[in-house]
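Worked Example 4.2. Consider the chain below.
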Amino acid sequence: MEPVAEPEEQLAGMVVLIVVMGVVTAIGVCHGVYFRMNLSHEYLEMEEAAKFNADRRHADFELVGRDGERLAMDRRYSEESLEVI
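Applying the procedure from the previous section yields the following C-alpha cells:
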C-alpha cells in the first residue's frame, strides 16, 4: 500500500491545518473576551439598578397627594400598592 501523499506534502498539510486551527482559536478567544466584557458591563448596570430599586423599596417615603394631604409610606408598603394620583 502506497502513501497517499509525499512526506513533504503531508508536512505542508499539517502546517496549514495548525495555522488554521490557531486562527480559529484566536478568533474564538477574542470573541469570548469581547462578549464577556459586554456581559460584565451589562451585569454591573443591572446590579446597580437592582441596588437602587432595593434602596428605594426599603427607604421611608413621604408622598404628597394632589390636595396637599401627606401620604406616609414605610417599609410595609410598596409603591405599587398606592394609587396613582
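Residues 73 and 81 are 10 Å apart (CA to CA). The chain has a mean pLDDT of 73. Compare this with Example 4.1 before moving on.
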